[in-house]
Amino acid sequence: MYEGLESQGITPGEEFIRAVEEGAHVNSLIILGDRRMDITLRRLAKALVLHTDPQKLMEADRIITAKMKARMPELNKWEHTKKVLSKDEFATFVEQMKTKEATADFMSEIRNAAPELYNALVGERDIIMARGMNTLFSSPLTSVLPPSADSKASLNTMVAVVGLGHVEGIGRELRSFGWSRFLPSQC
Q1: Is residue 9 part of a domain?
Q2: Cβ–Cβ contacts within 10 Å for residue 113, how many?
Q3: pTM: predicted TM-score of the whole model, two decimal places
Q4: Domain of life of the organism in this record (predicted)?
Q5: DSSP letters along the chain, please?
Q6: Consecutive sets of 10 residues in the chain, 187 residues long: mean pLDDT of each?
Q7: How many domains does the chain have?
């Protein structure tokens, strides 16, 4: 799958690579705060095998496809002509699908059709990432910095780079911890 995206000029995870590069450029502390991939994959496999109704998942796929076509009518033309998308057309398609509204629609369909699958892939990780941010933000930096660092240093601003499908859930969790200044942004 990733090879197909790369052949279309899209590098999966590129936003995270750029964030790390920019953070290193300004000498920022970089924390990787997601759950280990092997745990997520194990939870995902369990959810698929034990708790997911394939018919509901197929119906969600049909609904998501219809919503994608409604957002981008050119998809119907491309589908009927069996046209292979150019790199520019594919990039346009991806950008139109990477909106807050489209992501919320897709996440809602998956959550309704396969709640355990959604939880393993998104919900549980939202909680883990939000807890990590809250812990880091509310703790003295001495818990994460080398001993030679300023022991009185503290955070007053945090920039977190997360997938668009995680913004809503992480925001909800942070607000439950009392965060009032959570400013989601999309670049």
Answers
A1: no
A2: 21
A3: 0.77
A4: Eukaryota
A5: -HHHHHHTT--TTHHHHHHHHHHHHTT------SPPHHHHHHHHHHIIIII--HHHHHHHHHHHHHHHHHH-THHHHHHHHTPPPPHHHHHHHHHHHSSHHHHHHHHHHHHHH-HHHHIIIIIHHHHHHHHHHHHHHHS-GGGTS-TTS-TT---S-------HHHHHHHHHHHHHTT---------
A6: 59 79 82 91 95 94 89 75 75 81 91 96 96 84 58 67 90 91 66
A7: 2
